[in-house]
Amino acid sequence: MTGSITRNKQTGKWDFVFNGGRDPLTGKRKQIKRRGFESKRDAMDEMTKLKAEMLENAFLDLTKMTYATYLEEWFQERKSRLQQSTFEIHSIFYRNVIKPKLGHLKLQQIAPIQIQKFVNDLVNDTSYSEHTIHLIFRIVSASLKKAKVLKLIKENPSTGITLPKIRQQEIHVWSLEQVNFFISEAKKIKRLTRCHIGFLISIFTGMRQGEVLGLRWKDIDFDTQTIFVRQTLTQNAKVKAGAKNQASLRSIHIPNKLIDELRTYRKQLLQEKLLLGQSYYDNDLVICTRDGKPMIPRNFRKEFYKVVEKVGLPKIRFHDLRHTHATILIQQNVNVKLISERLGHSDIQTTLNTYSHVLPDMQKSVSDKLDKIIGM
Predict the structure, then answer these.
(1) What's the fold here for domain 67-149?
(2) Residue 1 pLDDT level (bands cut at 50, 70, 90)
(3) How many Cα neighbours within 13 Å face the side chain of 68?
(4) Is the per-residue pLDDT at 26 higher than 50?
(5) 28 φ, ψ to 5°?
(6) Does residue 376 or residue 218 have the better pLDDT?
């Protein structure tokens, strides 16, 4: 229930108005207004008291409240807590999947078997991946967990539900030879895409796509040869401060070769900026359109696939450059803890689980070395 308190210019007294939520019986929104308070504190106290009464009375007849009615209010709360892109994705799944299948059910009468059937139906629908099913279920589970906290239901019917096992997604990477081939052959392409510097950044750093596209020149220390990951670009080309998690806010040391490429590319950007003058949008982005605007991620990936096709290498996702970077470092016996920090993983176990396919070969190299150094 959001609200606001304002001073009435005519009377000099304080008024408040707030959204009373949806009526559980009619589904219509209610707006509550009160006027004539002597102080802002008086208005605040009365609004808080009225909100408490509304919450207490709004859900008295739970037998008539549908799950969809409850979710509408729950999503209003989520809107202020989630990142915009995450909220939009959750809203799409709510409208297209959850509401059509579960929205008509009475909140208080939802049974675990109905949630299990909902999940089973998603599993049988081959258009949904295991990851998507888990995400949809997390939305349902979180909403019902909050409903229990609010004492709208006695038990959470999503507890104990069996979910499909998430199969480890196969990772496709380039070998060290293929990486070197890509770098050397791409330079020979006539009118090489301006996105190429972004491909090199990913190869040399293992940064995520959003981190590469959100990188600014002020985030690069050329003297210490360090990149600082401080912001990202969302899928809808919006700059977002911060990163995927706290561990993702990190510094990455980069080699001389990438430093040289960045310096050369920066000269090109400065020339474009001078030519466009006031028409240039100076966002300080390393990867940007010709007029300085953020690059749409989808277009950035398309440019990568075009270059891969032109040089004749096996097609991989752009994100697989990150996996390629990590795999090459592991194969070169770089400490996994350092690789984990470089990738911005929250813990080393994530790195070990993700690149477990490389470890058997590493184990063999260890045993081979033991044969050489220990005499019997």
Answers:
(1) DNA polymerase; domain 1 (1.10.150)
(2) low
(3) 16
(4) no
(5) -85, 150
(6) 218
pLDDT at 326: 92
In the chain, what are the helix, strand and coil shares in percent, each to the nearest 5? 55, 10, 35
Nearest to 144 by CA among 114, 168, 164: 114
Q: pLDDT band for position 158 (50/70/90)?
A: very high
Residue among 149, 176, 147, 145 at smallest CA distance from 159: 145
Q: How many CA atoms lie within 13 A of 75 on its CB side?
A: 22
Residues 252-276 have pLDDT tens digits of: 999 999 999 999 999 999 999 999 9
% of residues, the chain, pLDDT over 90? 60
Q: Across all residues in the chain, what is the average pLDDT? A: 88
Q: Where are the domains of the chain?
A: 3-58, 67-149, 176-366
* Residue position matching structure tokens 């795999």: 327
Q: Are strands 231-233 and 226-228 parallel, antiparallel or unpaired?
A: unpaired
* Tokens read off for 215: 């990188």
Picking from 258, 228, 229, the residue whose alpha carbon sits closest to that of residue 244 is 229
Alpha helices in 98-240 (DSSP H): 99-102, 112-124, 130-149, 176-186, 196-205, 209-213
- What's the rounded Cα separation, in Å, for the pair 1 and 31? 10
CATH number of 176-366: 1.10.443.10
Alpha carbon 8 to its chain centroid, in Å, reads 43
Beta partners for residue 32, in sequence order: 18
Q: According to the model, what pLDDT value does residue 19 have?
A: 76
Length, in residues, of the chain: 376
- Long-range (24+ apart) CB contacts under 8 A made by 145-152 are 146/74, 146/77, 147/70, 147/74, 147/107, 150/59, 152/59, 152/62, 152/65, 152/70, 152/107, 152/108
Q: What is the pLDDT of residues 215-245, one digit of tens each?
A: 999 999 999 999 999 999 988 888 888 776 7
Instruction: Give the Cα separation of 329 and 206 in Å (integer).
Output: 10
